[in-house]
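Researcher: Quick sanity check before group meeting.
Model: Go ahead. Protein one:
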Amino acid sequence: MVRNGLRGMAALVSVLLGGLAAAVNAHANAWILPTANRSLYAGDYGNYYMYVPRTWNGKAYRVWQGGQYGFVRTPLKSRDEVLYIKFHEGLDIRPTRRDERGDPLDVVWSVGPGRVVHVNPVTGHSSYGKYVVVEHVCSDGLYYSLYAHLARARVEVGQAVRHGTPLGMMGYTGPGLDRTRAHLHFEINLLLDSQFNVWHGSLDGSGNPHGIHNGLNLAGIPVADYFLACRAQPGLSISDFLQRREPHYKVVVPQEGSRMEILRRYPWLRRGGTEKGTAWEIAFDASGLPLGVTSVRPETPLSRPQVTWVKESPHPQAYHTRRRLTNTGKHLSARGERYVNLVAGRF
């Protein structure tokens, strides 16, 4: 009896340790794709990304490129070059199956283990339509996967999920979509600040039913590039991936009054610098994703954020930066300063 009990206890411990090991491995970023569409890995991008209608020089096109992450929409000519100035923060993933009416049949599932932290069941409350956000506790920080334009959600806030747990059905909720362009809009994000409602000005939540999981508070990573990099290097962390990314501009922010909460959530952002600095220099990529934070001591005291460096371009910098920099790139625009203050927790 005792021997059998000990064996049973050993077996239980083995199962628990195995589960813990699986969780650790999962948290080491063993992500899976969010639907059955795997054309991304085959390089068949036309069957992976949902097209975007585009009119150029009086002709109408359907371009799958507009479904990618990045500056892929709203073309215009600048110095005889075609630039795309509208930023798309996620992936628009095509359905693999439809019913007789043309509605998608694809199940949308969690890309990794975590906890459901937000469900928006009301189409009109967001440009994302009905969407779900899952929080993932990884070895290098908290990351947030977002699944948008759902026909319906199958999960509740607080629910634990695993790889492949169904979250909802692909749909076409949200403005500007129809059955033909039904797709999943998918993101993996950094969370900027837990006091987002203060920054947003909706302390009672009436103007922001999504709380901290509002898209304005979620900075998306180049998720397709990351997934492809993970195929080449299994276990690649988001932090290691992002530290390979080149900045597009840098901004200094006074340390006084700046909580810089993102350094606690993502300690890998902290770079070497002056130990007793008076300002934070934040490096951003073109999308505004923070890539690094350094403590510095400017020669001149600061009262507000200032641009210290920007990657050279013959085109207006506003086009490259979601209009967060002025055209010359020497200054932040009003919207840019507001955004930097959110990242720095300075409000």
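Researcher: Fine. The other one?
Model: Protein two, sequence then structure:
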Amino acid sequence: MTSQYVTAIVPVRALHDGKTRLAGVLSLPRRAALVRSMLERVLAALRGAQRIQRIIVVTPDEHLPLPAGVARLLDQSVGLNPAIELAISEVSRRSLAREGQPGQRASDAVLIIPADAPQVSSYDIDTLIKQAENFDVAVVPDRHGRGTNGLWLRLPTAIPMQFGADSAEAHMAAARRLGVRVTGIEVAGLSHDVDEPADLGAEPMPEELARLLADEDELAPLLLRASSLAQEGFGQRVSYSRKVFIPLTHWCRDVCHYCTFAAPPRKGDTPFMTIEQVLEIARQGAEAGCDEALFTLGDKPELRYPAARRALADMGFASTLDYLAYCAQRVFMETGLLPHLNPGVMSTPEIARLREVSVSMGIMMESTAERLSERGGPHHRSPDKEPRRRLATLEAAGELAVPFTTGILIGIGETRLERIETLLAIRRSHLRHGDHHPELSRQAGDAYGVCP
């Protein structure tokens, strides 16, 4: 973690003035909604970044809604560059005023991020700062290599703002003339901004249009579009995770009628794997070249089965999640495998506790259709499958900036519209909290505070 105090600056024009080059394809209200949506995603990424200490939005719009903790700097300058220079001056002025004041920290650097980079993630921001912190200036070019989609400046700075055509080279040249340390850094999430109609591929489909897909009955065009999107996003690459599965317990307090993992207690069964069994599987996985230990388990079986409570008490644990935390820590310490945990519904304190011993967690959202929990539905008598509880887990993970996986189930009695509604609910949570990606390496444990 960097010891530098970094302030992020995000310039935003008034909503009714933005993105005029999109006027031919988007109405004024739609353009304003686009600007607001992209700004929300950029701010979510910045708020989730561990290396950003302060965020300032410089804008002429005093009514622009901003989340808590984000400062507003009102500016009536004509043009982007004067607005950014005003913000830098304000940060520098405050830094000078704070020098020598007990408990006050001056900004060491600023990171200028555009409001129209909807693909940027918290991980992108932290990675950028980590690469830039030994330089006085770092320029992040757009995907064409010409514009500037991110600018790191160590304070104080004399670099003039030159955002506009060919600004990447202009900023680099200005830094070289001043004789300061400068570098260019490519950041995937900052390569794509939205200025022209062709750039709108970065804009998520509006919810009202997404719901209309429920009535599409021609499969071939949908498959063609899905294939095209996959090719645009990932090309021909096929990725996989080298993981070993550790089924800590098959007991579960839920009774989902389609589940093939959970099993009710049988005579002679033991509720949980022993720590010796857990470590043996982990060691075999490590020897086979695995990087990850994926813990799978039923949802809090002790809340339903007395035998599970007794087994936990005999081992000295108050809950399944306490035992899971112990096992994950032992696996990491003794094998080096990175724990990923799928323990089901969790509270905020439970997620915070498990974050200390894992690089990532997850829960399947499955479906937001409450009717599936009614009598006769697949989730009847399964309290942990209530949509509000699973959404609350997803939200808590986002608020804590925990790398978190999720998804939907298909074929459990849901309609196509219910699938779309579930995906939209997941997307809303994602847009509120941004991306949080664990580093896929053995050093990720230190980076994410695994196992104190």
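Researcher: One line on it for the slide.
Model: DSSP finds 13 helices and twelve strands in the chain.
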